[in-house]
Amino acid sequence: xLDGWTDGKGRVLMNFxxxxxxxxxxxKSIDAFESVKNGELMFNxxxxxxxxxxxxxxxxxxxxxxxxxxxxxxxLKEKRxxxxxxxxxxxxxxxxxxxxxxxxxxxxxxxxxxxxVKFIYGHSIILSMMRKYTGDREFLRPAITRFATAYLxxxxxYKQKMPLSAMFTSQEFAQTKYAKTNExxxxxxxxxxxxxxxxxxxxxxxxxxxxVCVLREVDSEEKPAIxxxxxxxxxxxxxxxxxxxxxxxxxxxxxxxIDTRWTPQLHQPLHxxxxxxxxxxxxxxxxxxxxEVRKGLYACMDRMMTERDRIIADVQLExxxxxxxxxxxxxxxxxRNLRSPASWWERFGREVPELxxxxxxxxxxxxxxxGCERNWSTFEAIHTxxxxxxxxxxxxxxxxxxxxxxxxxxxxxxxxxxxxILVDDIESDDKWIAEQEDPIFPTDITWMDDEDFxxxxxxxxxxISSNEKTIESQTPxxxxxxxxxxxxxEEGSGRKFLCIFYV
Length: 503
Hints:
mainly alpha
């Protein structure tokens, strides 16, 4: 998985993470200040990482859907004939929500709601009063992206319509000094007298919450979503249609915004193969056994399997389709919805080993690169103004340890059935309300001055690519001009080495 990060100081870093059935792990980052918009250079970076990990171990590379990444993905598929490039599903769905949010009724309603939330959360007296009337319920609903946050917050406001109306018509509010301010009177008018506000809030919720639900599913690390993305998107569109009672003039513009992103970007052969191989969906009456789905399945089989295995698996596919052998046993039928799709194949697919191996590889895939985005704040926290003397090698090593430690802890908490949506992992949206986070590291940073900090047995030396050498020679190193020059290690031909921790 690959994603870029640009901080307030203009530093551009590309994060590489590896996802497997055992979890997501941070591999390394590169300084991409001069190359982030160059598709050829991005291809070289990705290709080198694939080579490092081993092409036989890589099934797909996930990035965002920017033009430079599309270019890099196309080149990668041409060179590496066994793997796929797919755009991040969470990013595509977020773009759908953004496109919908630009429609007039959505943009005006969101602006009104933001003013309401800012007024309430901006004054402690009003906030205390709101919690009293709503039974200590909050409006702010942290979510995966800021657009999802906006619509879930809108939903929270709508649920508290009656308490809010009671609060802003009460003597208690009228006696506060804020009731007579322009901000207070504007908020009161919006909630009590604006004839469009509440109907438009309901309209926005009906149109977007089904998409937000899909976004939360594809971003989940608890179970791979690639076998469900087809059904989830179709289900979301049907839910939107149902919410508007089939009124085409209401749901059709929303569908158009969804299809604009879904068809060219998110409609991928791997998603079709996952849909076909998912036993929870394959044997339902509503399953769409259309040419498009089969074409995607066959394309994946052609690309990911050897010629011999491809022929054998094609014959074995008939056993799966017609539920023969173990596939048709009563236990297999009853556990389709009790096991994960990959686990189901591992249990009942032993009679068709070639097809089983292919199905498990596909169904264990993620379809989102959100894990890359979750360590942006880690970079920002480690490389602050006080620590701008950090050389790039040390910055990368610190992030490697910090982020993978956090991933390990989140994996442990997930196994303990803790909510996957962790507030610490969510970027705040100051258009609704802004809060200051506590520092991650102690203010005393003398421990980073130790020159032996990286000289431990747990370090592995990885050669820096020719592309990174060029960037290093042109870039003023991560930090201020006073940052010390990066020490070079020499081996044989004098190549530079980037130190990466493994835990």
